[in-house]
Design brief:
The complex is a heterotrimer of chains A (455), B (385) and C (339). Chain A is α+β, with helices and mostly antiparallel strands and 455 residues long. Helices cover 34% and strands 23% of the residues of chain A. Chain A has three domains: 5-88, Uridine Diphospho-n-acetylenolpyruvylglucosamine Reductase, domain 2, CATH 3.30.43.10; 95-219, Uridine Diphospho-n-acetylenolpyruvylglucosamine Reductase, domain 3, CATH 3.30.465; 223-414, 3-Layer(aba) Sandwich (Vanillyl-alcohol Oxidase, Chain A, domain 3). Chain A has helices at residues 5-12, 21-26, 48-61, 113-123, 140-145, 153-156, 234-246, 276-289, 291-295, 306-313, 318-321, 344-358, 388-408, 417-426, 429-442; strands spanning 17-18, 41-43, 65-68, 85-88, 95-99, 104-108, 127-128, 163-169, 175-179, 209-216, 218-219, 223-231, 252-258, 265-273, 299-302, 330-339, 363-369, 374-384, 411-412. Chain A has an eight-stranded antiparallel beta sheet with strand order 15-12-14-13-17-18-16-19, sandwiched between helices. Chain A has a five-stranded antiparallel beta sheet with strand order 5-6-10-8-9. A four-stranded mixed beta sheet of chain A has the order 1-2-4-3. In chain A, β17 and β18 form a beta hairpin. The two termini of chain A are 24 Å apart. Chain B has helices spanning 4-7, 28-33, 40-51, 59-66, 73-77, 87-100, 106-118, 151-156, 158-173, 190-194, 198-215, 225-234, 247-255, 286-292, 318-321, 331-341, 352-365, 376-382; strands at 146-149, 178-179, 219-222, 243-246, 267-271, 297-300, 346-349, 372-375. In chain B, strands 2-1-3-4 form a four-stranded parallel beta sheet. Chain B has a four-stranded parallel beta sheet with strand order 6-5-7-8, with helices on both faces. Chain B is α/β, with parallel strands linked by helices and 385 residues long. In chain B, α12 links the parallel β3 (219-222) and β4. Chain B is built from 18 helices and eight strands. Chain B has three domains: 4-104, no CATH class; 125-252, Rossmann fold; 256-382, AF0625-like (Rossmann fold). Chain C is α/β, with parallel strands linked by helices. Helices cover 45% and strands 9% of the residues of chain C. A four-stranded parallel beta sheet of chain C has the order 2-1-3-4. In chain C, α9 links the parallel β3 and β4 (204-207). Classes of the chains: A alpha+beta (455), B alpha/beta (385), C alpha/beta (339). The interface between A and B is large, with 44 and 36 residues.
Chain lengths: 455, 385, 339
């Protein structure tokens, strides 16, 4: 590869370009199990214009670019599979504007979840965004682009559905605007224009570099509560979810199952209100929706003591991150399978089987997306980073899980490069052909995060 | 390497980079350099890689390690209770390994040499150590209730000297019985320890302990929170058991017992928590009590305060090595901008390193017309507003 | 095994049927109380078995100490009635199961039994508890909570094992034959429930409040009267041991606390609502909690003092939101001692 360090330094400043072995090491891997892939350079631009120049340079020299937000997918999506440049976007973390009336925020792509959370709390306390349970240093843009989900996803859907618009640097260097902001000074929605957002959502950075985006905000209410419903029969859970989401009262519905409490499925439902009375009313609606299961003695609400509610209402939930120390080894990775609700029981049984087969304690967490329209069914496996055999075992479990998820009719979310290949095998060939045609048009030199969504 | 067994347990989740409300980056070196390598998680993984021989010893690795200010934000906010308390210890152990390999940044080497040869990092003459006190005619320590230990910055740095002067004056006025060691005083060694030179630290500490014992010292008032921390927590491990106070504790006893009643004009001030008083020793109130007791002072808080305070960037020897200096994202410059945003006219500090860092930052930011940095004793002495 | 010591004839001939007539959660006239009594005695279905909120109060109301509540629980279990839904009950059975991680420990008198509440060991501090030994953990859980779950079988199974564990791991090699129970539940379990079920207890029991009184007397020179109005929240298990309730007044006298005169105190005490919530009776729980706390507030209480940690955790948020301070009895005593 031609030496472009100096040209990059001229664009972003020498202190924000590195080809040192230390940066190459850290940026070659993430926290999951995927093998490292080393970049030639790491660069940290500060503006859209700088990104344009870098992309133009990369185009000229045919050097791959891997854009990176928080780098926390755990599935290795920002490993530069074919070398080249890793573009760490975290310097671009300005929150540009909040529209209170139309409830959206425009922000740069490097803004972290935590930073926006704190900003809204301070400046717009009546509003909040849907925060994923990733660590707060994860970026807004990264999570939207991988079709993430979070604490308002039961009422608001995938985070990509909460996207109002974007500014994107195309693989050829042009800057385009997507959504209402392409036509109007406002970033209020993607409708009614042809929806071009799909060119960039779920593509693992292979179609362009998002530099700004607007996402929807939601009311942040004063009173918050959580209910926990426990069952011992996984066959019941899909119906539990169906009924509780039917109330349109909960903001977030999660189901947790683990080998620490084998045989139980615990459905957590958070909801909020402007008054105590409204909160009680919502609780009663949720209760009424699940009365059948109580009457049949197949489910019941657990008492969540007020002192413990904080842990369940925490956003993001730290104890999910803490799973990484389950094996005293600093690692976990999960397959977040997007699938229809009715597959719950089969998916659960499959998870137990896989964990038992590989001798790994099972930890399954499910987030309902939309009003029970689908779910993110996460099979999480902790591993000891210092134990190669343990890593290999978890890699095998993950691969097996991906295969079984696809067999069931689910689709692995933010799939690792090998899992992307598995997905393509199941995909309608015409769909994959269309993906390739689109990419060929957008990225004629094939510089954008190559190695992803390829056979 | 000591603490090697915890390195791989870091998930690099990044809670350590942030304050508890996630407002902004709160790790000084990551704030300045931005690369993941300069974050606490980056250091954990790089140290592991280095021990595994996946990466070599380089000046870059040394810069990454020595840019850590030992501020303790990572320890405060790490979400893994099983090993969080040892994060800083691991970084110090890593620095120690580089010290053993003689693979340290030149400025770090200069620092150690100067401390070893001169007892201070500025290569200044020991006999001038008490020049700041000439005007006050201070007594040498000879059995008074307290030893007032001013440290290297208090002895030689212009701002530190002012701090020492104001503190001593207030204590004289308040009838506190104290003396100083003058040219018998030597560096406390806290930064030497935080930079991993354990042998030199041990040498310094043992000498100081002997000096204190010989002089019959039982109670020590320190100007610097760094010395306070070292005397209180590290010297005791080496057999040096003293009652240690930071000067803010003494000022609190002198004037900080009552809530002030303000009438007429007031001046907004904000307080910057020094890491070695706050996060390292869990003392967030003494200085605030002092400020609240001064009529006319309106204490306003920065977004990042107390256990979430952003470090000035001077710890871990960085006030001398200046690895974190320069540029708008140097921690000290970010911090003075944050202070300015509160509407405060005075940024109050209680540490000679902080005042040094912020004086420079205020000049670089060009905001000296809007924001003054003053140490707590000067604020008390001047009786603002 | 461990048959309940219960005399059917006493109930059959009882004229007042206080157990049902005085129930604060079921409205009943004497005639319907007689009918329900007959049903229970004959092993038939009774609305008492499904409507009981398991507050334990009928154990206190029975003038013959004939264990009507234990009988109700036995009947519930015999008839397969699950006051708490089966999955939630089974989950609790897993959570509260003995973990078999107990280890021998040399103890000395006085020894404080913290039962399963290891997390509250921090409360055993200061001069009140100077020189005490502490025992705690899932393996010595008194298991009385299963009265709320219609699981007397679990009590019969696990309580004797807990007693064995206490004897084997703590008492055997120590010169101790007396335990101070931090919690009413344990004192109730070992002095009331165990004898009722014929379970042998190889140690004597001291109620925490009695211990506190002794210590307060020892430390009386250091007491500064707190001079505050205090409401007392009786736990359900205190219904098994009403003979200990005078200790509350005696403690309050010693520390200068003024026990507020209110409707829902003493024999009229209301449940903390943990059991009602577990039984899926949220609306009842809302009502009971509101009445109870309003009553405390109207009486002018500044503190709401607890013996039971479960009551404390269940009610503390609502108590705080009403402007009172929730506090455990031992902590209140420590305030009086200036600690």
């Amino acid at each position: 590869m031609k030496n472009i360090d100096k040209e990059l330094a001229d664009i972003v400043g020498s202190e924000f370009v590195s080809n040192h072995p230390e940066e190459k090491f850290i940026y070659s891997r993430d926290m999951g199990t995927m093998e490292p892939a080393f970049p030639d350079l790491v660069v940290m631009p500060n503006t859209t214009e700088e990104i344009q120049k870098i992309v133009q340079l990369a185009n000229r020299e045919e050097i791959p670019i891997t854009p990176m937000g928080g780098g926390l997918t755990l599935s290795g999506l920002v490993r530069p599979l074919k070398g080249g440049i890793v573009m760490d976007l975290k310097r671009m973390n300005r929150i540009i504007a909040v529209n209170e009336k139309s409830r959206y925020v425009i922000t740069e792509a490097g803004t972290s979840q935590g930073m926006l959370q704190a900003y809204l709390k301070k400046h717009h306390p009546s509003l909040k965004h849907s925060v994923p349970d990733a660590p707060p240093i994860a970026t807004i843009a990264g999570n939207v682009l991988i079709h993430g989900s979070g604490h308002i996803s039961q009422s608001g859907g995938f985070h990509s559905e909460m996207l109002n618009g974007m500014e994107v640097v195309m693989p050829t260097g042009e800057v385009v605007r997507i959504g209402s902001c392409a036509t109007s000074p406002y970033w209020f929605s993607r409708a009614p224009l042809p929806d071009l957002a799909g060119l960039f959502l779920g593509w693992a950075g292979t179609t362009g570099i998002v530099t700004k985006l607007a996402i929807k905000l939601y009311p942040n209410r004063l009173f918050n509560d959580v209910k926990a419903f426990v069952t011992e029969d996984s066959e019941q859970v899909a119906e539990v979810i169906h009924r509780v989401t039917g109330t349109q009262v909960a903001e977030d519905v999660n189901v947790v199952m683990s080998s620490r409490m084998p045989g139980f499925q615990i459905v957590f439902m958070t909801y909020s209100a402007d008054t105590k009375e409204e909160l009680t009313w919502k609780r009663n609606l949720i209760r009424a929706s699940l009365k059948k299961f109580i009457d049949d003695n197949v489910g019941g609400f657990m008492v969540v003591l007020p002192v413990l509610k904080g842990d369940f209402l925490e956003v993001p939930m730290k104890n999910i991150t803490q799973f990484a120390d389950e094996m005293q080894g600093g690692g976990f990775e999960y397959i977040g399978a997007i699938m229809p609700i009715e597959l719950f029981s089969e998916a659960y049984r499959t998870g137990i089987e896989i964990a038992d087969h590989f001798g790994i304690p099972h930890f399954i967490i499910v987030r309902v997306v939309g009003l029970g329209h689908c779910m993110m069914f996460a099979y999480a496996y902790a591993f000891n980073r210092a134990d190669e055999a343990d890593i290999k075992k978890v890699q095998a479990a993950l691969e097996d899980t991906n295969r079984k998820v696809l067999q069931m009719g689910g689709i692995p979310w933010k799939a690792e490069a090998p899992a992307q290949k598995q997905i393509i095998e199941h995909m309608d060939p015409n769909t994959f052909a269309l993906m390739n045609r689109i990419r060929a048009v957008l990225d004629p030199k094939g510089i954008m995060n190559p190695g992803n969504w390829e056979v | 390497m000591e603490y090697a067994e915890i390195l791989h347990r870091c998930f690099r989740c990044g809670f350590c980079k942030l304050p508890s409300d996630y407002t902004d980056i709160n790790c000084p070196s990551y704030l300045k350099f931005k690369f993941e390598t300069y974050s606490p998680g980056g250091r954990m993984w790089l140290l592991k890689a280095w021990l595994n021989k996946d990466i070599k010893t380089t000046p870059r690795l040394a810069e990454i390690l020595f840019s850590c200010t030992a501020c303790g934000n990572c320890v405060e906010h790490c979400v893994f209770p099983a090993f969080k308390e040892d994060l800083l210890n691991a970084f110090i152990a890593g620095k120690g390994e580089l010290v053993n390999e003689k693979a340290i940044p030149p400025k770090v080497r200069d620092y150690f040499e100067a401390i070893y040869l001169h007892g201070n990092p500025f290569k200044r003459l020991r006999k001038n150590r008490a020049n700041w006190a000439t005007e006050l005619n201070l007594e040498s320590f000879s059995g008074q209730t307290y030893l007032f230990y001013v440290g290297c910055l208090g002895s030689y740095d212009e701002n530190g000297q002012k701090m020492a002067y104001h503190t001593a004056k207030l204590m004289i006025d308040g009838g506190v019985s104290f003396g100083i060691l003058g040219d018998k005083e030597s560096c406390d060694g806290n930064e030497v320890r935080s930079m991993g030179e354990m042998e030199l630290f041990k040498h310094i500490a043992e000498k100081n302990i002997q000096e204190f014992r010989n002089a019959g010292v039982e109670n020590i008032i320190t100007l610097s929170p760094h010395a306070y921390h070292s005397f209180k927590n590290d010297y005791s491990q080496l057999g040096g058991h003293f009652n240690v106070y930071h000067y803010s504790h003494i000022l609190k006893d002198l004037i900080g017992k009552k809530e002030a009643v303000t009438s007429g004009t007031s001046i907004p001030v904000t307080f910057h928590d020094p890491c070695y008083l706050g996060r390292h020793n869990n003392d967030y109130q003494a200085a605030r009590d002092v400020l609240r007791a001064i009529p006319g002072i309106e204490l306003v808080e920065m977004d990042r305060t107390m256990n979430n305070a952003l470090c000035c960037g001077g710890g871990g020897g960085n006030f001398y090595t200046d690895i974190l200096g320069g540029g708008p994202d140097s921690p000290a410059r970010v911090r003075v901008r944050e202070a300015l945003e509160t509407g405060a006219e005075v940024l109050v500090v209680a540490c000679p390193q902080c005042i040094l860092m912020f004086e420079d930052a205020i000049k670089s930011e060009g905001i000296s017309e809007k924001l003054n940095v003053m140490d707590l004793s000067e604020v008390v002495q001047s009786g603002l507003p | 095994m461990y048959e309940l010591k219960y005399d059917k004839d006493i109930c059959a001939t009882c004229e007042t049927i206080d157990c049902l007539m005085r129930c604060q959660y079921m409205e009943m006239d004497l005639e319907s109380a007689r009918q329900e009594r007959e049903r229970i005695l004959n092993g038939e279905d009774s609305r008492v078995l499904t409507d009981c909120v398991t507050c334990y109060a009928c154990e206190e109301y029975c003038p013959f100490n004939n264990h009507p509540f234990y009988l109700i629980v036995d009947r519930q279990e015999e008839k397969g009635i699950w006051p708490v839904p089966k999955p939630a009950t089974n989950q609790q059975l897993v959570i509260m199961a003995p973990q078999s991680d107990i280890a021998p420990k040399k103890i000395q008198s006085p020894t404080i039994n913290m039962c399963a509440f290891s997390m509250l060991e921090g409360c055993i501090r200061g001069s009140l508890f100077e020189g005490t030994s502490i025992i705690s953990g899932s393996d010595i859980f008194c298991n009385i909570m299963w009265l709320h779950f219609a699981k007397n079988s679990t009590i019969r199974e696990r309580l004797p094992k807990a007693i064995d564990n206490i004897r084997e791991y703590y008492l055997k090699d120590s010169d101790v034959d007396e335990l101070v129970h931090f919690h009413d539940e344990c004192y109730g379990a070992y002095t009331h429930l165990a004898p009722a079920f014929g379970i042998e207890v190889p140690f004597s029991s001291i109620h925490l409040f009695e211990y506190l009184i002794r210590r307060l007397d020892d430390l009386k020179d250091r007491i500064t009267p707190i001079n505050q109005k205090v409401a007392y929240q009786r736990p359900c298990s205190s219904r098994l041991i009403p003979e200990t309730q005078h200790f509350v007044d005696e403690i309050f006298t010693r520390i200068g606390a003024d026990r507020v005169d209110r409707k829902y105190d003493r024999e009229n005490a209301l449940c903390c609502t943990f059991a009602q919530q577990a039984q899926q009776r949220d609306e009842t729980a809302d009502d009971v909690l509101k009445r109870n706390i309003d009553d405390m507030v109207e009486a002018g209480a500044a503190y709401c003092v607890f013996n039971c940690p479960a009551c404390f955790f269940t009610m503390s948020e609502a108590v705080t939101n009403s402007g009172m301070m929730p506090i455990l009895m031992s902590d209140l005593c420590q305030i009086a001692l200036g600690e």
